[in-house]
Amino acid sequence: MADKFTSPDDLAIDLDGAAPLSRFRDARWLLLVGAVLGAVATLFYGVPVLASLSGVAILAAVAAFVPRRSRSMKLQAGQRRQLRRMWPGTGMKVTVDALPVPCFVADGRGITRYVNAAAIDYYGQVKPGDPLSFSLRAPSLLEAFDRVSATGEPERIHWQEKVPTEAFFEAHVAPVYMPGSAGADNRPATPDFILVVINDQTEQKRLERMRTDFVANASHELRTPLASLTGFVETLQGPAKDDPEARDRFLKIMLEQAGRMRRLIDDILSLSRIELKAHVRPAASVDLIEIVRHTADALAPLARDLGMTIRTEVEVDEAIVRGDRDELIQVAENLVENALKYGGDGEFVDIRIQRTKNGDAADHICLAVQDYGAGIASEHVPRLTERFYRVDVGSSRAMKGTGLGLAIVKHILARHRARLEIESVPGKGSTFTVHFMPSESA
Ligand code: ADP
């Protein structure tokens, strides 16, 4: 790609610098007529020779030193045309500025002529006059640019960048012809400008990947109990046909597997329902103290089965937040159920409602669930809210887990503009704290 820079100054034509000699040549007919008129006036009308000569001299001086208007205008028009081909006009600039994605206008040789605000936001300062390759380095994009410049055919290309983080882009590279710039044989000349419009598709790709990963994970999770069910049905139809003892044992396992499938489907549906409402802020006022009491009562039988006790500690007089009661119950139940299931080495699970002042954050209401179990190694903590992420798949399955509980919690809290904080010390237990933003306190 060419990188020679031409500025409008390089194009400037020095009108005043046109040599007096060439102006004489241009005015030769006028001077001739003046000389003839002077001679006629002297010969036939008795005008003094000196006066006639002075008249011709004045005419010559005017021709030599005063630029002719029509010529300068002609030159300016030519200059303007050339400039129009070199620097995009206001119309093109305002159009490009109105686009929300990064846009570069370059000339056919790859020199940047204009960039919109979105491009400056994304790529930092871009100087018109610099080669496009100073800002856009992707080889496939620069090759596409050269092709568009040579053929005049628009192109759409995609590329991927790995550094500093993985990113995906799409660019539309289109030729722009100014009126009257087509070649003499009416085939397109080199485009006057080439418009490069760039789309960052990283987020879209990430969502696509998440969706396909989710479908793959969900089918895998469902296929395992389904395979087990099918296997037992075949065994009951064949070898264990007349074995009532085996039949009872197998039917019990089949019921468990069916329950696991039902829980998975319930959680998947729950997640997708919450996702559908992701952008709708809940409007009702919810009493967190009532939610904590409800959760403690609802999970008391499970705690009893596991030999544990749920303790509640309410350190505030009132804890009203803006929210959806059913969803906040789901959050509290998921956190307490996890604490009971995975904090089994301890004796208690504590649920606390308190007011906290955390760092720079303003005074706000928190709901904390603490267990005194095995805790979680620090490398797992940031990934716990990912769908189907489990520290130990075996123990999660044994505890009837689906791997979706904390993903559901995260989605519900995002809708409530609340934040989940996870602190865990291996061997000592974990605390899951929900911080309700002060503006969400009703
Ligand atoms: P699951 O259905 O497996 O419980 P969750 O999304 O609720 O799925 O939790 C994800 C994983 O996080 C669990 O499988 C478990 O490994 C870990 N985990 C969650 N809560 C706790 C806790 N209180 N103590 C230890 N590990 C926990």
Task: Walk me through this protein's architecture.
By secondary structure, this protein is of the alpha+beta class. It folds into four domains: 8-83, no CATH class; 86-200, PAS domain (Beta-Lactamase, 2-Layer Sandwich), CATH 3.30.450.20; 206-276, Signal transduction histidine kinase, dimerisation/phosphotransfer (DHp) domain (Helix Hairpins); 285-436, Histidine kinase-like ATPase, C-terminal domain (Heat Shock Protein 90). Helix content is 48%, strand content 18%. It contains 15 helices and twelve strands. The protein has helices at residues 8-11, 20-26, 28-45, 49-65, 69-86, 90-98, 117-123, 139-151, 202-237, 244-276, 288-298, 300-305, 325-342, 393-398, 405-415; strands at residues 103-107, 112-115, 155-161, 167-176, 193-200, 285-287, 309-314, 320-322, 348-356, 364-371, 418-425, 429-436. The strands form three sheets. The chain has a five-stranded antiparallel sheet, with helices on both faces. α9 runs antiparallel to α10. The longest helix has 36 residues, at 202-237. The radius of gyration is 41 Å and the shape is elongated. The two termini are 61 Å apart. The relative contact order is 0.07. Mean pLDDT is 86; it is low at 1-18. Bound molecules: adenosine-5'-diphosphate. Its EC number is 2.7.13.3. One of its GO terms (cellular component) is plasma membrane.
